[in-house]
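Task 17 of the worksheet. Students: predict the tertiary structure of the chain below and write it out as structure tokens. Keep your answer in the requested format; marks are given for formatting as well as content.
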Amino acid sequence: MNKEKRVSVLPILAIVAVCIGVAIAATACIECPQPSGAAEERIDWNLTLIGDEEKVLSLDEIVAMPSYEGDGGFFTTVGSVNGPFKCKGTPLKELCNLVGGINASDTVRVYASDGYMMVFTYDQVRGDFITYDPELREVPHPELEVILMYEQDGAPLSEYDGRPLRIAIVSKDKLLTEGHYWIKWVDKIEIWK
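Model answer:
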């Protein structure tokens, strides 16, 4: 009789052990929100600058540089409007100056970690773009600034928005530019002479 009780208890103990294991695994997968004021997750990201010389900057070094804040947004090829956002980042021309600067005959190639690349002319680096209002009507613009954005609407970029670095075209007005210029996941900037 004792043998029968032991045999029937073993399957129950096995089921309980499996349930405890599943509960522990499920609890480990749950993300706990950080308390207000908690330190942001440190992002290990480098940007390579190539011009007259080559320089590699960490994300922390880029954030420590003088920044520019402005508003900007973009639209996609199918007319979907994104923004405008409040953007903060380092001016592209300042990054170019770290490796010798750019001349009127130069172009700047901006590369993303996913293989995307965009070429900017000297005039574009200095802010020469066609701008649009939120209804996608072409409008004149004040001075534009091309920045390497690391903050959008007061927070670090999300992965979806190009975390940690993205090109943005901004001004003091809430204007839009074409979306293909807003390169996500920027990891290299190269000046072509």
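Marker's comment: The chain has two domains: 1-30, 46-192. Confidence is low (pLDDT under 50) at residues 22-39.
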